[in-house]
Give the backbone structure.
Amino acid sequence: MEIFVGRQPILNQDEKLVAYEILFRDGKNNFSANVNDDVFATSNVIANTLFNLGINKVLNGKKGFINFNDKMLINEEITNNLPQDSIVMEILETVEITDEVINRVKDLKNRGYTIALDDFIMLRNGYEELFKLIDIIKIDILEIEIDLKKITNELKNKYPKIKLLAEKVETREDFELCKELGYSYFQGYYFSKPVIIKGKKLSSHQFGLLNLISLLNKNADIDDIVVEFKRSPKLSYQLLNLLNSSMFALKTEIQSIKQAIVLLGVDALKKWITFLLYLDDDSKISKDNPLSGLVLARARMMEILESKRKNSDKKSCEKAFTVGLLSLMDVVLCISKEEIFENLTLAQDIKNAILNKSGELGKLLKVVEFTENENFKDLSNLLKDLNISLEDLGKSQQKIILECEF
């Protein structure tokens, strides 16, 4: 049985990463995102993902939301193996609220579990007892059957202790609206969609980074690269601090920019200089920054999947990584991709992949984006075109989770 696991970030009002929803898929069912209703199969999925991969590695100290149907809730062999401090039990909207379910939820609450209700749309009869036990309600803002503001206020007035989580938050406007309405948590991909600000200009720091990337892409002389660093003390400090960190596990303490370039090599330096553009003003790779995690995971996913292809080589893998790393640059800089690339010297196939989703690299970027957004409709055909198997895709996802500490 091929087992796949994915994660969707859950953010708080400060846009910091606080939890993941753990997503299970069975490769035999066309990479379906639906959890199998069969208790035996589902328990095997949980065991093979959370425990084989390692729950601490999967969650990285965050909470993990897991969907539970009525059979799973009642089955103590499943729930008793899940740690109370890490797991949020997410009751599916299809669960019939019976006395048996209510009593089981009471027991789980007494044992210290956090309980959430999934895909809430409207108040229904029979939910009163359950709502006394619920900690979090997940509201699908795209599927809500009545006015969002009305249902939100009704829930807050009747159940003030319950925290609200907005699902399917796809735009900045969605996020701001739900935040204003008093939602505590947010799930969706609004943070990866750009808000283009007309007339926005690059800061000198951002321009210096883009210029440095162009120099590296043109195979400029090391001395010219060092000069670019010397123009920005902040940039020099950022890079030296980053390269001296445990992330690179270098045994030699770096004393100069030139030494850092020689030790790391141009390819590694190019990756991390690009990644610096995604960091905040404190210039720290933050585990609480979902965009940082998405960028690094996307770039590595591109690189790993390219390595699975028949005619791949080191150069093609480097290109794939670069496409993934640059594909969200407009989100970070808040200007169009076209304007960004005016300041960057890049291979044409890299530009075409990011701007038009064309070429082999463009198809690979589509695969990664479809996987991130749980859009599996056209995924199989794309994978077939690229000669990548579903098994390779699943294993790549698992590898990303084990590698990327976000």
Notes: Confidence is low (pLDDT under 50) at residues 28-38, 281-285. The first strand starts at residue 3 and ends at 12. The chain has two domains: 3-192, 204-403. The beta strands are 3-12, 17-26, 63-68, 87-91, 114-120, 136-140, 163-167, 185-187.
